[in-house]
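Hello forum,

I keep getting stuck at the same step: I have a sequence, I want structure tokens, and every attempt I make locally crashes halfway through. Rather than fight my setup again tonight, could one of you with a working pipeline run this one for me? It's a single chain of 294 residues.
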Amino acid sequence: MHENWADGGKAMTNKKSGAQLQQKKVDGEPIVVLTCYDYPSSLWMEEAGVDVIFCADSVGTNVLGYDDERQVSMDDMIHHLKAVRRGTRNAYLLADLPYGSCDTPEDALGNALRFVSLGANGVKLEGHKPAVVEKLCARGIEVWGHLGLNPQLHERKGLKAKTARGAARLLNRARQLEAAGASFLVLELIPEQVGRAVSEALRIPTIGIAAGRHTDGQVLVATDMLGVHHFDLGHVEQFADLRSNGLAGVKQYTAAVRERRFPAEVNVRQFREPEQAERFQAWLEAGTETELPD
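Reply #2:
Ran it on my machine without issues. Output:
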């Protein structure tokens, strides 16, 4: 069911499968996941060997300028999924079901099928929704659960499962999602001890974001780890500084244009044939009211 649609629909022979990712948990090999919202970034991630390219609803606050993830629509996700898919060849392509798209099993199925038809290998949904997971899995769709902080559902973005009772509830819900058929589970903003306990209790791989060092893989928002916005987030290590470099480049371009240093002679094009330049100049000098014949 999960055809590989990168490069205009041609199947990619080295495409990572869910089964291969699950084997990484058995082998003790961490799974590398990054969010992605556009074609150029997907090319970077492919070249770097990222395992899972994740078209996430964080596109809303990081790219589209929305105030909240809940403003992201299916149309938004489809637009960006198409762009990401065009650059995704070998990585597993994961798509995020946005707010309001999976409130019922029937709604979730219809929207998940749209993502799969566009090349997604799996879909992620937030919250404890075992009935929805069962519905999607019955149709052969690989489902990624998401517990802990759920930005679509939680007004407050603080630490979750921070009490013993809350941690036990999260672990039990994780087991229920696994029993319903979930293939993977994202854990967000929970104590490291809880992330470790859930990862050890489940057969399926766990992917952590601010969930400690013991999950089976890690995911970060690409714009955070690349330093696009310079947010002060304790769980993020900044591996690049695109904001500073990009801002410096824009300032240099602005100054070069205003000072008439750009375009320079090396940046311009001239007539290839001198006689064409001479003919055009003669036409200008004679007046430009008539067409210049061939």
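Confidence is low (pLDDT under 50) at residues 1-11. If your local run keeps crashing, start a new thread with the error log.
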